[in-house]
Amino acid sequence: MADRASLQPPPGPIRARAYLFGSAVLFGLASVLVKVAANQGMGGGQATLVRFAVGLAAVVALFVLRPGTFRPVRYGLLASRGFFGGLAALLFYLAIAAIPAGEATLLNNTFPIWAVILSFLLMGERPTIHLALALLVASAGVFLVLGGGEISFGLGRGELLAIASAVAGGLAVTSVRALRATDNAPTIFSAMALGGLMVSIPYGLGPWPGGTPALLAAGGAGLVAFAAQLLMTEAYGALAVAEAGLWQQLTPIASYLLALTIGERFGPMTALGTVIGIAGVVYGSLLGHRPGPNEPPAEREAAAGLPVEKP
Length: 311
Fold this sequence. Notes:
- This protein is an all-alpha fold.
- 71% of the residues lie in helices and 0% in strands.
- The chain has a domain at 12-128 and 152-239.
């Protein structure tokens, strides 16, 4: 097994939250670029394939430029991260192609609920009532941002794809949380990129509509998502799954706001939802965390009253 001392120490809580904020903005930008590719005629499966091909190329280039960065340790968990992370992205893009983007995003964004349940069962992480309330508040804000309170749900193929994406996403981020004790962020991302590439290859066998503009947009999404994934993975080394999932509720808000650049409308409910969503994240970050037995040492020391970086 690789020496744990060879890993860089996880970021402190404040830096980890900043990483998740930056990750949310970048994931939002990636979603906008995928939407641009879709508007040019590219299908969801093809956008997924381009995204992960670009991401895999980027991380391989990083490994070449920085020898020794690729240090896999827990192969089973890396395989889990790769398969479920790639599957979650593919199912989400397919859901967007089948139902309105707002509905797909809301259903997909239930992944923190699945992640919290899994992290409690598998890792002993215990969310507090404050964190549960914060997640509800942030989710309400997301609902207002994406749908203005007017989204209605059925239970067709698209809805089932979005829910399945959320479950797969919960499994993926739980794997990330466990992996951060032994494996670095680029190694973990390489597993996801490879898994995503493998599950989306069948969608690249047919004709490719959209031409160069669609390919450029999807490729840009791959580069942006690569940076977002590295930031997110680093943050999971310092924060519990529940709090990290709460911060990721900012992603659909960022996605909608950035979509203003391609002609989306901005109404009063969107503004209200943005304020509510951010308020939920701040509330959960300040009051919502209680360390479990597998928490990082800094978090356990904070619970014991020892000096540690304060949020």
